[in-house]
Design a protein that fits this description.
YlqD, 3 helices, about 25% strand, TFIIE beta domain-containing protein, alpha+beta, single chain, 2 domains, coiled coil
Length: about 150
């Protein structure tokens, strides 16, 4: 290392891409299906919790229920519906992702995620070039490192 040139350590975002293979497609589809199943389970639990909470309020209130009881029941239904809406949005996103994965062609490269990496730079380095680094995976194994590492 040349002591006359000061060095600086910096962080950069490193794009990680994957080559679409039959194994990769299968794994991603399984992950997305598991997410969809988890959301379905959450929806069922939410529905049951809402029904139980309403039944409990009705059990503890006067018959016929007063305006305060009706307001509590309405509030619970609003909360349940809002959470249901959020869960259904998640499920729809996962279903769309599942459909997109099924349409991907083999050997195509897709962005998978980003990680942070540390690199050193010194006077005279092309900083933009050093920031543009990506890793290519094939079935989880590094196949290529692209850019100025």
């Amino acid at each position: 290392m040349d002591a006359s040139k000061p060095q600086l350590l910096l962080k950069r975002a490193v794009n990680v891409k994957a080559v679409v293979t039959p194994r990769w497609k299968e794994e991603v589809q399984q992950q997305l299906q598991a997410q969809i199943n988890a959301v379905d389970t959450q929806l069922q639990q939410l529905e049951m919790q809402g029904q139980r909470a309403i039944a409990e309020i009705q059990k503890q209130s006067l018959q016929p229920p007063g305006p305060q009881t009706l307001q509590q029941i309405e509030n619970i239904q609003l909360q349940v519906n809002q959470q249901k809406s959020e869960l259904l949005e998640q499920k729809n996103q996962s279903l769309q992702n599942l459909q997109q994965v099924q349409l991907l062609e083999l050997e195509q490269e897709v962005n998978q995620f980003q990680i942070e990496g540390i690199f050193s730079t010194t006077i005279g380095d092309n900083l933009i070039g050093k920031l543009q680094v990506e890793i290519l995976l094939r079935d989880g194994v590094v196949q290529e490192i692209r850019g100025d590492i």
